[in-house]
Design goal:
About 55% of the residues lie in helices and about 10% in strands. The chain has helices at about 20-25, 40-45, 50-75, 75-95, 105-110, 135-140, 155-170, 175-190, 205-215, 225, 230-240, 265-270, 275-285, 290-295; strands at about 5-10, 30, 120-125, 145-150, 220-225. Strands 2-3-1-4-5 form a five-stranded parallel sheet, with helices on both faces.
């Protein structure tokens, strides 16, 4: 490893605890993460999805300005300045996206700007897990030391969390989230619809792609249930080249709306996701207890 800062790219999985990872690294004294967790540079460029991402950043900027106005009225100087940093980060990412394919060097400068003597900069964008193998390979060689992290959460738990998030976003006025979520779940596991959801948890497809695109010593694939606790945390920190800093409280994935799967739905989901359980067990060995409990339903 060189003395220059390393760059970590976390490519997911969606709803697999990447927000917990962001919080841990953002607060770590060896790390330098910008205020935007999901930068979405490479997937925007690859998918030519500029209009959508510009709209996302525009809405985020509007929200930040409104919150900053409230902070100013309350004479909260720290919050006002913190929100200004976030607004500046949004503006800079919009500028970089406007460069398209030519923006990689500016993207790297954005990640490293202000890093000082810290050891690691990073981008945690779960959507990168859907990038092409060629794009991932280019990312792996865009700087001297680029390290990739992929987090695998129990497949049923990940899918249900993703479905609940989609239900909250898609429901019509007056429509109950629980009803919407169950309909989406049925469409995914029994009708093979909602085709944008399942690929986010295609561990076999994503991991094998990463193994082909990224040098072996620059790739860490771990279980969400283990990665930010105990030995898993030591493994993560050693891989990233940072000090092993204990977490102050147990991390958790964003749980979103609290809705329970029925036994029937959980069984159907486990059956639908059986290939993922089989692949991960064959490739990585013994599964965490939570995985084993759901796999037993198959």
């Amino acid at each position: 490893m060189s003395g220059d800062p390393a760059i970590m790219i976390c490519v997911g999985a969606t709803k697999a605890g990447t927000s917990s990872l962001y919080r841990y690294l953002h607060d770590h004294p060896d790390c330098h993460l910008r205020s935007i967790k999901e930068i979405h540079y490479f997937d925007t460029v690859e998918n030519n999805d500029y209009e959508f991402q510009f709209d996302v950043f525009s809405r985020l900027r509007t929200d930040l300005i409104q919150r900053q106005d409230i902070a100013k009225k309350n004479e909260n100087k720290w919050k006002t300045e913190n929100l200004q940093r976030q607004i500046d980060d949004v503006d800079e990412m919009v500028r970089i996206l406007e460069l398209g394919e030519e923006g990689v060097s500016d993207y790297l400068f954005y990640l490293l700007d202000g890093i000082g003597d810290k050891k690691l900069a990073g981008d945690i964008t779960p959507g990168y897990g859907l990038l092409s193998e060629e794009r991932l390979r280019d990312m792996a060689h865009m700087a001297p030391d680029v390290r990739f992290v992929f987090m695998m959460r129990d497949p049923v738990d990940r899918l249900w969390s993703h479905v609940r998030m989609q239900a909250s976003r898609q429901r019509r006025p007056g429509e109950e989230v629980a009803v919407k979520a169950k309909r989406i779940m049925n469409r995914v596991v029994n009708r093979e619809l909602e085709k944008h959801i399942a690929p986010r948890g295609d561990y076999q497809g994503i991991v094998e792609k990463l193994k082909r695109a990224v040098p072996e010593d620059k790739l860490l694939v771990g279980f969400t249930e283990d990665l930010l606790t105990g030995e898993g945390l030591k493994t993560l920190c050693a891989f990233l080249g940072i000090a092993d800093k204990p977490v102050e409280q147990e991390p958790h994935a964003h749980k979103g709306v609290k809705l329970q799967l029925s036994d029937k739905q959980r069984h159907e989901a486990a059956r639908f996701l059986a290939p993922q359980y089989a692949y991960v067990e064959k490739t990585f060995g013994e599964l965490p207890a939570r995985w084993q409990a759901n796999m037993a339903r198959i």
